[in-house]
Write a structure and sequence with these properties.
single chain; alpha/beta; elongated; nucleotide-binding; binds adenosine-5'-triphosphate; 5-stranded parallel β-sheet; 274 residues
Length: 274
């Protein structure tokens, strides 16, 4: 099959078509992006500009993929960071890193001749957690710096910044972050339903030799409750089983064994953290 291709690695281009399921999340994100890339119309209608998009949902459901696809869709540079990178013992370091992140995004966009940059901050709850009256002064400064940068998004000259953040603990976020004028567009990224799981399995099967008797539909049924990341693991583990068996192709039994393995792996992880 000439059409086989693998999913692009981090930093490479990725389109919405390469994200399985998540139809509603994709649609909501595209709507928000269309809105963001038309600042003139927003001005004309006197609409309050959108500062940031918050993706919420369980781990491994494709939030990072959505942010990357948003960068490709808007022809932007993509810059990513994780909330935990801003946690430092020394006061002011985290805030400085936030400043640098925005600076880096603008510089990279300029260098690449692009008019916008997507900044993706994963685990935003680490810096944007509820402020508790002075216990974590350093976190406060970091969060304040992020709020300052967000306020400057529309006042600073181009390139424009499209800020996307992700969390699986939305209830932990400080109200200053989620009030109107900040991250005021929230998009829920849920575990995939059966149709979504099938779509994700199809995407990750593209670069694998599957036996003609394999039914990915059945695997989609059997993998109830799995995230996209777990489904990717299922395809990968199945290919490892096939290789160990000296099989030319991945068979149905390899996929069933892989489902058990991924499920067991999760259990073992949970038991270990008890
Ligand atoms: P976390 O909250 O842990 O950061 P996330 O929601 O950002 O997770 P991703 O990093 O986007 O999850 O997904 C991890 C990997 O799982 C992807 O690189 C991809 O291989 C696979 N994956 C997850 N969701 C999907 C999906 N909807 N379609 C295709 N692959 C997916």
């Amino acid at each position: 099959q000439g059409g086989r291709r693998t999913l692009p690695k981090a930093g490479q281009q990725l389109s919405f078509e390469e994200i399985g399921g998540q139809e509603r999340a994709k649609q909501e994100l595209i709507e928000a992006l269309d809105f963001l890339v038309k600042p003139d119309e927003i001005m004309k209608f006197g609409i309050r500009p959108l500062k940031g998009i918050l993706l919420t949902g369980p781990p491994g459901t494709g939030k990072t993929l959505l942010a990357k696809a948003a960068a490709q869709y808007t022809n932007s540079i993509y810059v990513a960071a994780s909330g935990s990178e801003f946690v430092e013992m020394y006061v002011g370091v985290g805030a400085g890193r936030i400043r640098d992140l925005f600076k880096e995004a603008r510089q990279k966009a300029t260098k690449a001749g692009k008019s916008s940059a997507v900044i993706f901050i994963d685990e935003i709850d680490v810096i944007g957690g509820k402020r508790d009256g002075g216990q974590h002064r350093e976190y406060d400064q970091t969060l304040n710096q992020l709020l300052t940068e967000m306020d400057g998004i529309y006042t600073t000259d181009s390139p424009r910044i499209l800020l996307i953040a992700a969390t699986n603990r939305k209830e932990m976020l400080d109200s200053a972050l989620i009030r109107p004028g900040r991250f005021d567009r929230h998009i829920q990224v849920d575990l995939p339903d059966k149709k979504g799981r099938r779509h994700i399995l199809d995407i990750h099967a593209k670069n694998k030799p599957l036996d003609e008797d394999v039914s990915l539909e059945r695997i989609a049924e059997e993998s109830f409750g799995f995230s996209g990341a777990q489904l990717e693991s299922v395809m990968n583990e199945a290919a490892i089983y096939a290789m160990r068996d000296d099989n030319e192709n991945v068979m149905q039994q390899h996929l069933s064994m892989a489902i058990d393995k991924v499920m067991m792996g999760e259990k073992t992880d949970r038991e270990a953290t008890k």
